[in-house]
Amino acid sequence: MKAKPFLALTLLAVILALAASEALMREKAETMQSSMVEVPLFEVDPFWPKPLPNHWLLGNAIGVGIDSRDHVFIVHRRQSLNPGNEGNVGEGQPDAECCEAAPNVLEFDPEGNLVGSFGGPSNNDDYTWPASNHGLQVDPKDNIWIGGNGQGDSHVLKFTRDGRFLMQVGEPGQGVDSNSTTHFSRVTKVSFDQNGDEAFIGDGYGNKRVVVVDSDSGEFLRYWGAYGNRPEDVDLGAFDPDAPPAQQFRGPVHCAEPSNDGLVYVCDRTSNRVQVFEQDGTYVNEVFVEPRTRSAGSTWEIAFSPDEEQRFMYLADGLNRKIHVLDRKALEVLYSFGDGGRQPGQFYGVHSIETDSKGNIYTTETWEGKRLQKFVYRGMGRVEKGSNLAELWPTQD
After folding, report:
1. Closest alpha carbon to 138 in 61, 201, 192
2. Distance between CA atoms of 136 and 353, rounded to whole angstroms?
3. Domain residue ranges in the chain
4. pTM exceeding 0.85
5. Which of 56, 269, 324, 374 falls between 20 and 30 A from 331, CA-CA?
6. For 36-388, which CATH superfamily applies?
């Protein structure tokens, strides 16, 4: 008779334990669910682009832009080939038939075929090719704009997409002056408002400002520094993550990207921040990403998702070798992808980033990365907030 109460108590204890375990699992599931976010997902295409012809090699791939046909344009530095092996090549070299530097600007169709190329010094001195080209963008009228961050590069160039020269903006061969209305200093990139009427220039490695010019005439319209301040040419020294935020751009001012809703997102690279402004230079907000990064910094270049609201912002982080995906309006990092390395889906000095009309991402890599990669948009999915999805290698069907 005494066994029955004991069994009843045991059974009750088991039931209570199961109930507690179920409640704990439900709580953990709810916590996990609350930490999940809906984001665009990607997968590297290891076969894009197709091999270049003529034994061509890329140097530092330093800019990428996309036209209305989803053709991808990149600019690279021919002179950055390694003289110890890559550089001992080309016409007149007796060692072997391979290789030589590709033309400065290359054009690929959506399938990854090389369909055009141009660039380099003018044959009739109507423009000055940069000593070190830096940044390429396609405006809404399908013209190509190229900057330069070499010593004495104080101008930008505008071409048709087939390489016909249109305009040089800024006097070449000038020095640093962040309040000049006649020249820049070591421009990083040129971007455009929604209609292409105004060009927003990251100026740059020498100057420490954003400059807006008329896209047709090249006339200087306005400029500003960090927090909308009047820019100053002062050396702020090395970044200190524990110091108060600098009131001027530390630089390089590596991008100035207008959004469809009238904002401008500015990369202050070695300060690890993106500052947001109205298009007249009024300061709005800022976000710090990987804020303890030193040296070359974390905020290299940004692109937006192609939906009308541009819901997501993609940030290239060259030093940490990854792409950060942010909620654009909330300035909140949702997740990241990529890792250091030279295999497809990995990065070494990821420098520039752009999206096409289908939502695919394209990146170029500088330093010894020297390549162009495509990340195919695979639709929306849920990931744990703050996670890093590493290489995004294609799944096996």
Report:
1. 192
2. 10
3. 36-388
4. yes
5. 374
6. TolB, C-terminal domain (2.120.10.30)
Question: Which tokens sit at 147?
Answer: 């900057």
Please give the chain's pLDDT, 397 residues, in tens. Answer: 456 666 666 776 667 666 666 766 665 545 445 699 999 999 999 999 999 999 899 999 999 999 999 999 999 999 999 877 886 665 666 667 778 899 999 999 999 999 999 999 999 999 999 999 999 999 999 999 999 999 999 999 999 999 999 999 999 999 999 999 999 999 999 999 999 999 999 999 999 999 999 999 999 999 999 999 999 999 999 999 999 999 999 999 999 999 999 999 999 999 999 999 999 999 999 999 999 999 999 999 999 999 999 999 999 999 999 999 999 999 999 999 999 999 999 999 999 999 999 999 999 999 999 999 999 999 999 999 999 998 788 876 5
* Residue 343 identity: Q
Residue type, 279: Q
Sheet holding 198-203, edge to edge: 187-192, 198-203, 209-214, 220-224
